[in-house]
């Protein structure tokens, strides 16, 4: 299968809502080609940007909104960097978008974002193993570090929210004092 056909298959899959959780967690698992990994990475960054903008619009929590927007700005930077690598590699940055996920509940939104960051770390860790990555090591090396930071911000917030709702639940469960 030629690269062009391969990419259209990948991007076709990405446009479908039904995608397996394992494929979402390890986006480049079955991909060896550096150029294709960059294309998937770019689509992953686009999906992350949309997901964060969507989540920032949905949540009523100012703290969560600020975390979503802070992370989103880094994803814009990553997308630009990966697009530049694709150009240098003689290709063209695609506009395929990784499937983003959304919900009404903040806990669920945060969990989707943590999952997204885990898959981003997996993706860039694999990219760094490719020999071609050496040419862009300075750029690519910093990206998974940013993704780890995003994950930490989200996980901290998620822990706080889970703790607060557990506390609320237990105080409700307490018998009323006569
Ligand atoms: Fe990113
Ligand atoms: Fe991220």
What does this structure look like?
- With 178 residues, the protein is mainly α.
- It has one domain (32-156): Ferritin, core subunit, four-helix bundle (Ferritin).
- The protein has 6 helices and no strands.
- It has helices spanning 3-15, 21-25, 34-58, 62-88, 106-129, 137-173.
- α1 runs parallel beside α3.
- The longest helix has 37 residues, at 137-173.
- It is elongated and about 60 Å long.
- The mean pLDDT is 86.
- It binds fe (ii) ion (2 copies).
- One fe (ii) ion binds at residues 45, 48, 75, 78, 120, 143, 147.
Write a concise keyword list for the protein shown above.
178 residues, Ferritin, mainly alpha, binds fe (ii) ion, 6 helices
What is the CATH topology descriptor? Ferritin
CATH architecture: Up-down Bundle
Number of strands: 0
Distance between the termini: 75 Å
* Total of DSSP H or I helical runs spanning 4+ residues: 6
Secondary-structure element series:
HHHHHH
Overall morphology? elongated
Topology record:
Elements: H1 3-15, H2 21-25, H3 34-58, H4 62-88, H5 106-129, H6 137-173
Helix pairs in contact: 1-3, 3-4, 3-5, 4-6, 5-6
This protein binds fe (ii) ion (FE2) (2 copies).
Quick recap:
It contains six helices and no strands. The protein is mostly helical and 178 residues long.
